[in-house]
Structure formats: structure tokens, C-alpha cells
Amino acid sequence: MSDLDPEEFRRLGYAVVDWVAAYRAGLGGQPVRPPVEPGSVRDRMPALPESPQPLPALLGELDRTVVPAVTHWQHPGFFGYFPANASLHSVLGDLLSGGLGVQGMLWSTSPAATEVEQSLLDGLAGALGLDPAFTWAGGGGGTIADSASSAALVALLAALHRGSGGAWRETGVDGTERVYVTAETHSSLAKAVRVAGLGARALRIVPPAPGTLAMSADALADMLAADVAAGLRPVLVCPTVGTTGTGAVDPVRAVAVAAAPHGVWVHVDAAWAGVAGLCPEHRGLLDGVEFADSFCTDAHKWLMTAFDASLLWVRDAAALPAALSITPEYLRDSATDSGAVVDYRDWQVPLGRRFRALKLWAVVHGFGLEGLRAHLRAHVALAAELESRVVAEPGFVLAAPRSLSLVCLRLAAGDGPTRALLERVNASGTALLTHTVVDGRYVIRVAIGSVATQREHVDALWDALRTGRPDGP
Ligand SMILES: *Cc1c(COP(=O)(O)O)cnc(C)c1O
Question: Given a cut of 80, is residue 246 above it in pLDDT?
């Protein structure tokens, strides 16, 4: 039994592309999140076939079994969580990557997979206005991780390595390590602390500056000094640019200043908001990143690139390999030994890695930086309009300052009515919203950023919000 021959692949490939095109074209008419009973998809799955089946049968199964039970993340009415925009440019780039089918774990296992990634990350560092120290020529470098969560984990491992003078590789952790976050920091930091074996006691929650949701750098400085005096070892602090709940921005510069005397690794988590640095008017968000040790932003949230593509830059290109490199004989090769190449396996937990750079390249190539800026700006403008409508509407409350394209709102009538409103909008199928809690109150988040979202969809959402509240407009 052989694989598809290239001619069959061509024919079936067109059919698959047609299917995807029809899916995207028809998305607006689907409920964003269809109701699904637990177990119903498994119940409908056919038994594994003994004999080969034709592709159209599989596409038919997708229509019957899969599409009715997916949440349509590319739907123009998707306003939940943060967007995970998978532009069709990036889908084509992903196809090219799959077609090449290479492993980029070492430079020598596919030199282009490594060098295209290096070059793109250098280019994007420039486009984001990052300090040249984060480029390869500047002694640092960038990589594409699968997720911001993985990026945080490897940053923590590099921090443990540096903070222990390398002893950590031999002795492991000793229970004195401490990691500094806020109550708004993404849970991936707590997970990284757990995975690294530090235990939850290592996690120190720095309070916010009064009246804000952003880390107090003064409180951080006090906690660091107190912990050092108590014989503990501060390892890493993670300021967030654009928290997941409300888009709050920690003061990266002041955090870095507080961290510096103790040699603490500063990892900036800008998973969602960081890409806005492409627009000069938003570059102030990245103020102070030039003093950080690592910086992460997801191309797979707002930057049009299908999951997974999380961009991670470090100031010291040797930091991650120092913490992570282990070289068995079968991975030894002369390019590595020459020291002239980067082996990205040493920048991540797994050995193997996909040629992720191709889908990112397809995005930057297809939209141009100009197109990407226009995409970001359109969503920020729509969010600003929605914000003014919320402010002007009696009974509605802006629950946090708007952050870029994220608007947080609630009803003055209280938590119950706000939750009922969210549930009503979601049940209508025209939009998907998610929530957070701010100052103990239930808050609706509107994250504008789906590739297909236009003014009409935000208008429709506002109508649904206004007319859907329990006491009516
Ligand atoms: C979404 C998000 C993450 C996690 O992103 P993944 O790439 O899915 O791991 C981390 N931090 C922040 C601030 C986020 O918004």
C-alpha cells in the first residue's frame, strides 16, 4: 500500500482547499458555538476502517461529525478569550511546511528551517522596535515556540540556570527559589513553576499599584529585598504587557529597575498585546523591554498566524542552550561542533520541531507589515468606538480602561444581570463572549480581533448587548 502519488495528491489537495474555502465563506451563518452534548462526537465517530476509504467520504464525515461540534474561532462574531486568528495566508504557509515535512531540531537537519526562523525573528524584532540586543547580531536571538506557556517555562529554566551559576543542572532546585508575578499574571507562569519543580510556595504575588491592576514596582522592590534578607533566592519576575483578564500593563521599566540589583531574570509576557508594537503609536507599551532578559508575544493570537507560533526573544543567545542542551552521540555533528550554527532543539523542551517559520513568513509576505498594522489598527478603532458606546449607555459600566482592542464591561444592575446578558448573547449564536472578575465583580470581556471581524459585526454585538440586558433598553 503506497501513499498518494503526486497526481492524486494534487487532485485531492484541491478538494481539501475547496472544503476549507467553503467553510470559511459560510462561517458567518453558523452559530459561533453550537450546542454540543458531551460524548456526542465520540458516539458519532465511525469505526476505524479496515480498507482504504476515499477522501470525499472523510470530508463528508467532517461535515456531519466535526463542523457541528467545533467552536468557530475564525467566526467574525468571535469575541471570546483572545482571538486565535488563523489567516488563510498562514493556512497556506502551514501546508507548505507540512509538504516539506522536515525536522528542524538541529541546524544540520534542515538549515533553512533554522535560518528562515532566525531571519524572520530578527526582522520582526526590528519591526516591533525591540532593542537590537535581542537580534542575533546583537548577541541575543529569537525563536518560535509552540506557545507563550512554553516560552515562559524555558525562560524560567534559563533563569534557574543563571541564578544558580549553573549549579542547578547538577543539584536541581533547593526550595529557596522565588518567582514574582501578580494576581493578574497568566496561569502559565504558575504552571511553569510547577513543572520546574519549584512548588507553589515559590510563587510570590506582587500587589498592584493602588487603583490599578498593574504590578507595583515599589512593592516588588520591597518583596525582593525582604526575600533576599530571609535567605531566599529571587529567580525570575514576569511583568505582563496586556494581562489576559483586562489587558492591564505592568510597568516593565520600573520592574526591571527593581529586579536589577538582585540579578533577577525579567521575562516580559506580552502574549496578546505585544504584536501591537508593530504600530508606532502603540510602541510605548513595550517601554522598558530593552532591560528585559526575554520577551514573548504570540503571532497566533492577534498576528494572523495559525496556532502555534509564539515568538520568544532572549538577550543572551547562550542562555537557553546553557540551561537545556544535552547532546547524546547520535545528535553530535560537525556543524554543531563548529559553533557557527544555532540548534533550536536547545531552545525548547522537545527535541523535534516543525518548520513553523513558513506560516509566519507566509503571513508577513502576504499582508506586508503595512497590512498587519492596518489589521491591528482596525480592531483598536472598533474597540474604541465600542468603549464610547458603553460609556454613553445608561446602565452599562466600563469595568476597566480599554486596552487596545479589549473592552471590559458590566451592567450597573450587578453580577447576576451581567452574567445573564453574557449567556443570552452566547445562546443567540451570533457572538461568543467570555468573562473575567474585576474587583470581585463579574465582567464581560469583548476581545475584538478575529480575522473576519468587521464594523458590522461589532455593531451587531452592541445591539445584542443593549437589547439583551435583562431590564431591556
Ligand atoms: C494567552 C496568554 C498566554 C498563554 O498563551 P499560549 O500561547 O496559549 O500559551 C500567556 N500569557 C498571556 C498574557 C496570555 O494572554
Answer: yes
